[in-house]
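User: I've been trying to design a sequence by hand for this structure and keep getting stuck. Would you show me what you'd pick, starting by listing the structure so we're on the same page?

Assistant: Good idea, let's start from the same input. This is the structure you sent:
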């Protein structure tokens, strides 16, 4: 009996061990086979209910809730949720499972229709599918406002639609409102630049478009682009308004000096906020050196002056400007030498003071019959033509070099190079150039070629249709954005250019209302709209040896 019992116990133990081994093997095998998971979830979350319900009136609470069909998350912390009219204190946004809750931290206005737009900041928990834009409308009064406006926003220069632009309504006549107060209604443009503001109360409004860079619903940064109307908008039940905007950066309202530098001995560079019409720079001791001023063009905001090299550790200057008829004087102080006072601070001493020259040729070659421009690193006082030689090999070719400098004294322009020569060599001996400080050049040698006729193309474009009244200007632009040709538009006369370097170009036409030969931004403070600009739809591919004739038909 005892032996039989030991045999049964041993058999049972074997059975148990075998069972455990099989179970462990099945478990290991199962862990190596990932579950299929089913099809990928591509469905966006949906709002199944809200408190209050959409279209509710008489709301007096301080909490709004959105209940979703699935668990969601806030992609950007809720910053994409738009409340109109906007609140001085943003609401607190909390996420609780399938519910997004907004708690107002200020009292809502009485008898006011509010809309809360939830955009793509709410996404599902698994795949990140964004909620389709949804608006909840409710009123703290007995009824909902029912008027609306819609339209589109485009960049004033490129004419391309702009997304995420705020279009805002102000029920007042003061132009300063976008800078100081919040609007009563607003909407944000979508990816195609379109917007719609609903539930507006009947009345008269100023409508304003803003590319709000700091998300405070106010126009308070110089780089923020704006769009505006020339008049107020009257909304009535019989009128459904469609308003489009062209946005651009505005000139600053007040003149101020943005930047100053003294990076080279004698070179003063200034950057102003508002274009300057008149400028004079004067040393603190009363000596004026305006005749040495270089690079100043009336109507620009970047100014460059070259002044006598100071011998003291610091330099004091007065910059006298006139902008919009208002005079301004800025006192400029620069460190000029290394001294105990200037220790650890930058000065202009010790920097490269050699006289340098460059010859920028488009495409690396000279276009036939074009002028050759040699640019100096500093303004030049005089040029000595006798110290220039045009070479063929080692021999000198008879050629008369000009003895005049350009208007801004930093350029020497040579024209009329021999047409028979396709390769040019110019030798300039020391003393050919003398700058305003009396420094002379070392020996200079330039060697360059001209384009052959079959290496260039010819382009012509005729405009069909009428762009409108006023002065219009053509511009041919290369792929880097550089204006290659500018020409006054004349009806029935094509824009044409010979000897065009092969490449990709575009054409635009703008109304030059102030005859300054450049496109101008809008000015909200003066109620001046951006100058109208038209872009040719398509690229112009210029090939070597080809004549290209294009027709631009304006749409009626």
């Amino acid at each position: 009996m005892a032996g039989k019992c030991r045999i049964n116990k041993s058999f049972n133990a074997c059975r148990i061990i075998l069972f455990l081994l099989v179970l462990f093997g099945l478990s290991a095998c199962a862990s190596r086979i990932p579950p299929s998971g089913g099809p990928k979830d591509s469905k966006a979350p949906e709002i199944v209910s809200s408190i209050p319900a959409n279209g509710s009136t008489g709301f007096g609470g301080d909490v709004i809730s959105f209940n979703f069909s699935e668990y969601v998350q806030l992609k950007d912390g809720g910053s994409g949720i738009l409340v109109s009219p906007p609140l001085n204190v943003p609401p607190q946004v909390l996420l609780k499972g399938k519910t997004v809750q907004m708690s107002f931290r200020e009292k809502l206005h009485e008898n006011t229709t509010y809309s809360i737009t939830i955009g793509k900041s709410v996404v599902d928990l698994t795949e990140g599918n964004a909620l389709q834009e949804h608006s909840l409308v409710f009123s703290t009064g007995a009824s909902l406002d029912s008027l609306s406006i819609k339209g589109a926003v485009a960049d004033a220069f490129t004419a391309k639609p702009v997304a995420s632009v705020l279009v805002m309504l102000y029920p007042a006549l003061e132009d300063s409102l976008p800078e100081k107060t919040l609007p009563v209604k607003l909407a944000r443009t979508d990816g195609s630049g379109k917007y719609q503001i609903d539930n507006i109360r009947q009345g008269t409004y100023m409508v304003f478009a803003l590319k709000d860079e700091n998300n405070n619903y106010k126009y308070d940064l110089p780089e923020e682009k704006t769009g505006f109307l020339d008049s107020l908008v009257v909304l009535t039940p019989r009128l459904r308004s469609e308003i489009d905007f062209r946005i651009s950066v505005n000139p600053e309202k007040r003149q101020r000096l943005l930047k100053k530098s003294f990076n080279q001995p004698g070179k003063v560079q200034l950057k102003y906020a508002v274009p300057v019409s008149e400028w004079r720079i004067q040393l603190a001791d009363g000596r004026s050196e305006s005749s040495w001023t270089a690079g100043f063009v009336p109507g620009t905001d970047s100014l460059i002056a070259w002044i006598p090299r100071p011998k003291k550790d610091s330099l004091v200057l007065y910059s006298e400007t006139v902008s919009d008829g208002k005079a301004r004087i800025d006192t400029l102080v620069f460190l000029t030498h290394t001294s105990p006072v200037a220790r650890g601070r930058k000065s202009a001493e010790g920097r490269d003071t050699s006289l340098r020259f460059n010859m920028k040729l488009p495409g690396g070659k000279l276009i036939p019959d074009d002028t050759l421009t040699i640019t100096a690193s500093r303004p030049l006082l005089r040029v000595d033509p006798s110290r220039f030689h045009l070479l063929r090999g080692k021999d000198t070719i008879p050629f008369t070099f000009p003895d005049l400098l350009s208007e801004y004294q930093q350029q020497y322009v040579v024209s009329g190079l021999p047409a028979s020569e396709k390769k040019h060599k110019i030798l300039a001996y020391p003393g050919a150039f003398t700058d305003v400080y009396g420094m002379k050049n070392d020996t200079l040698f330039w060697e360059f070629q001209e384009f052959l006729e079959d290496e260039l193309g010819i382009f012509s474009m005729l405009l069909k249709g009428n762009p409108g009244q006023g002065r219009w200007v053509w511009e041919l632009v290369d792929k880097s954005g550089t204006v290659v040709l500018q020409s006054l538009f004349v009806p029935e006369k094509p824009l044409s250019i010979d000897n065009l370097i092969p490449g990709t170009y575009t054409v635009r036409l703008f109304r030059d209302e102030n005859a300054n030969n450049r496109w101008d931004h809008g000015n909200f403070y003066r109620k001046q709209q951006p100058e109208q600009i038209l872009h040719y739809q398509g690229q112009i591919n210029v090939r070597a040896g080809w004549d290209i004739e294009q027709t631009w038909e304006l749409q009626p």
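That's my pick for every position. To get oriented when you compare it with your attempt: The first strand starts at residue 47 and ends at 51. Residues 47-139 form a domain with the Immunoglobulin-like fold (CATH 2.60.40.1220).
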